[in-house]
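We emphasize that the prediction below concerns an isolated chain of 277 residues; any contacts that depend on oligomerization or on bound cofactors are therefore not represented. The input was used exactly as deposited, without trimming of termini.
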Amino acid sequence: MASVRTTIKTIQEFKDRGERFPVLTAYDYYTACAIDESGVPAILVGDSLGNVVLGYDSTVSVTMDDMIHHTAAVARGTKRALVIADMPFMSYQTSPQDALRNAARFLQEAGAQSVKLEGGEVMAETIRALVDRGIPVMGHIGFTPQSEFQIGRRFQGRRNVEDARKMIRDAEAVQAAGAYSIVLELVPEQLSQIITEKLTIPTIGIGSGPHCDAQVQVVSDMLGIVSDHVGRHVKRYADLSDTIRAAVSEYAQEVRDGTFPTSEHTRPLSEDILKDL
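Result of the prediction step, given as a token string:
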């Protein structure tokens, strides 16, 4: 029997039942396979791949071709999870028409079932244009990495009451425009709770406290693959960077010592061929 893929309707049903659900990022086929087989219902192909896969200093350098390439790999590795593609910098901000053209590529070429874009009230028209044409949209407010050069990497909506009110207006505008869910990144815990209670669509928190309907983590952060400093919102469930370094060091030493490979790591010629040679 074929596996049933998570849909945006499934995501809404989680919210309606009060059932918390996990979301993880993935950027390659094998990681997507592992996450999918673990039963995580939604996978975000984040433009964070710029930092954790491609070695860029920010997400701004990530291109549409980068995102299409990695999204397609993730889609091939999934049977059940909803695959959400992050729209990269300037692939949607220029006009709703550009956003529609680029979002369609994610569904047609890469096999995603949804796209995510950053911005609140300012992006409402664009979100509505995509949704009206059949493209499911996940919103994203709070700290928006593509605006890091402008706003800095810090919690949003906590400087004064007007900042907090604007965050609520942004969330409501994203919902009204037709988004089926919204990421709250680096939003103060109490404010994210207020937003979650106000909205009928699910909120997905990252660094925004325990009251969101779902949580998302960057997979390389939570697995400890990246040894660099990570934010306070990250919980490491493994320390694979140390495991990888130890394994590589052991391999390298065995090659130098001549203890790897041995005859058991290859295949011999048959005696008849060996005699002929």
